[in-house]
Amino acid sequence: MQRRMLTKEDEAAVGADETEVRREDQDKINRFSRLHQREMLLEDELKTKAKDKEDLEEISNELELADENDKIPYKIGDSFISLPLPQVQELLSSSTEKIEEEVSTVEEKLSEIREEMQQLKVALYARFGRSINLET
Q1: Residue 7 · residue 15 · CB < 8 Å
Q2: Most buried residue among 33, 61, 72, 109 by CB atoms closer than 10 A?
Q3: How many CB atoms sit inside 10 A of residue 92's CB?
Q4: At what angle do helices 23-63 and 85-128 cross, to 10 degrees?
Q5: CA–CA separation, 54 vs 89, rounded Å?
Q6: Cα separation of 96 and 102, whole Å?
Q7: Cα end-to-end span (Å), the chain
């Protein structure tokens, strides 16, 4: 995002075209701000979950090389329990499925938020034009 200063002509045009901010406009601006904050949090959560999923897939691939009779330490809560390989693979696949469901839920929330933000942008830019900056 490139920031620039307004030219004297733009500044004069903005001053001449100044629109009064009504209560409903301020509510929309505040709503947009809250949605933007929530969007950033969900994007961070999505990155974390994607990393967790990638780690689980990597571990699953590594376990394919392990011997069938080996006991594999598996973390449950704060402790590690030695379990047979097939059981660990089953637990990993269920964990991967759970993370995939969580990722799809977060992506769905993000899409709803972005859609509402777009509607607010349209309404606010229609009212204020270049007097407001909603670019994120």
Answers
A1: no
A2: 72
A3: 17
A4: 160
A5: 15
A6: 10
A7: 8
